[in-house]
Amino acid sequence: KRLVVLVSGSGTNLQALLDAIAAAGAETYGAEIVAVGADRAGVEGLARAERAGLPTFVCRVKDHATREEWDHALAEAVAAYEPDLVVSAGFMKIVGKEFLARFGGRFVNTHPALLPSFPGAHGVRDALAYGAKVTGCTVHFVDDGVDTGPIIAQGVVEVRDEDDESALHERIKEVERRLLVEVVGLLARNGYRIEGRKVVIQ
Ligand code: GRF
Q1: Three-class SS of residue 52?
Q2: Is 111 among the catalytic positions?
Q3: How far apart (Å, rounded) are the C-alpha atoms in residues 139 and 160?
Q4: With a cut of 70, which residues of the chain have pLDDT below it?
Q5: Labelling 99: which of 87, 140, 161, 189 has CA 20 to 30 A away?
Q6: Ligand 1: residues within 6 Å at CB?
């Protein structure tokens, strides 16, 4: 299976996928990353892709007159690689109607909280501020909401009294990277069906 991964920052989730595929071999893992895209240039995630010898692309909102044109450009950039599955690994933009029309149902996202709790761009900070005792991460299909699509898998992480946002986020990411590698491999190898809010992996 062909994966396109979208990043916005450090790309450690991308790196986890790269390492898992390199270790197992694309055949055994069931997928290979064919390209990495970002919404801005110069992020570490793109450098990781380049080090792995992968094609990369940047699709910046401010390069387009409207959000819809950006969404179209992003969809075109992704479609050029003919992905079976698109993975948002720390991609911090909300895609629009066209992207979802073309990739919905094969577009997964990882979120650093236990959805439906703490959706949005500050899930770690929000869980900490709320005083949650446990939080975690969620891998889900992307739908037309923000972090509202059908949940595929979740991992629980304890919150410690001494945690600040970055310490907690690092602990979440340890679980998140393993969960994403496991889920992407399963979806690629086994195939799946989405039935309402349920995801059935064959
Ligand atoms: C991940 O925790 C992701 O869930 C969140 O931002 C983080 C990205 O980390 N949206 P990285 O870029 O994969 O290191």
Answers
A1: coil
A2: yes
A3: 23
A4: none
A5: 189
A6: 7, 9-14, 45, 89-90, 110-112, 173, 176
